[in-house]
Amino acid sequence: MAMISPLATPHDFESFVNPGEERWNSREGAEITTVVVHHMAKIDFDDVPEVWREREASAHYGIGPSGEIRAYVGEEKRAWHARAANSYSIGIECCNVTEAPDWKVSEATIDSLVTLIRDFNTRYGRKMRIVGHQCAEGNSVETTECPGPSLSPRLVEIIRRVDE
């Protein structure tokens, strides 16, 4: 049974993956200590898993523009979202409400992101480290622009709100 937040709706991610291909694997005993925040670079929340059919990537959660939270990969598994940080992190994809160059996310998305991270802190009994994709181990501003020009500057606010 997949371990997911009670705030999330399970999404049948496995049906989007080609048979025999894997988009997650074992954490190999690594403790979850970090949340990696991403932006989807998409404005259609329903299209997200389809992207992973073509790319070797996945995430634990996605948050839509209305604040809906979907679970894609169980927390007990290592999703493929942040290179070296995958084994000890939970990846959250935030759906955009505008396209390039701004890639904005809605206030409802931000509110749900804060609530979801608070849930992790409660369930895991510790304060999770919160980073944007480009600041996760193995990534940099040279390798990715994620979590995007709109969400990146809001990470300080998100961290403050989670801690309130």
Quick overview of this protein structure:
With 164 residues, the chain is α/β, with parallel strands linked by helices.
Task: List the topology elements.
Blueprint: E1 9-10, E2 24-26, E3 34-39, H1 48-54, E4 61-63, E5 69-71, E6 77-79, E7 89-94, H2 107-124, E8 129-132, H3 148-151, H4 155-163
Parallel strand pairs: 1-5, 3-7, 3-8, 4-7
Antiparallel strand pairs: 2-6, 4-5
Look at the structure and give the mean pLDDT: 91
**How many helices?**
4
Helix content: 10-25%
Report Rg: 14 Å
Beta-strand share of residues: 15-25%
Count of separate structural domains: 1
The CATH superfamily turns out to be Peptidoglycan recognition protein-like
Widest beta sheet: strand line-up: 1-5-4-7-3-8
What does the overall shape look like?
A: globular
What would you call the structural class? alpha/beta
Number of strands: 8
CATH topology: Lysozyme-like
Report the order of strands and helices: EEEHEEEEHEHH
CATH architecture: 3-Layer(aba) Sandwich
Which class in CATH terms? Alpha Beta
- Compute the separation of the termini in Å: 32 Å
Biggest β-sheet description: 6 strands, mixed
Structure, explained:
With 164 residues, the chain is of the alpha/beta class. It has one domain (9-13, 29-163): Peptidoglycan recognition protein-like (Lysozyme-like), CATH 3.40.80. The chain has helices at 48-54, 107-124, 148-151, 155-163; strands spanning 9-10, 24-26, 34-39, 61-63, 69-71, 77-79, 89-94, 129-132. α2 crosses α4. It is globular, with a radius of gyration of 14 Å. Its EC number is 3.5.1.28. This is N-acetylmuramoyl-L-alanine amidase. InterPro entries: Amidase/PGRP_sf, Amidase_domain, NAMLAA_amidase_2.
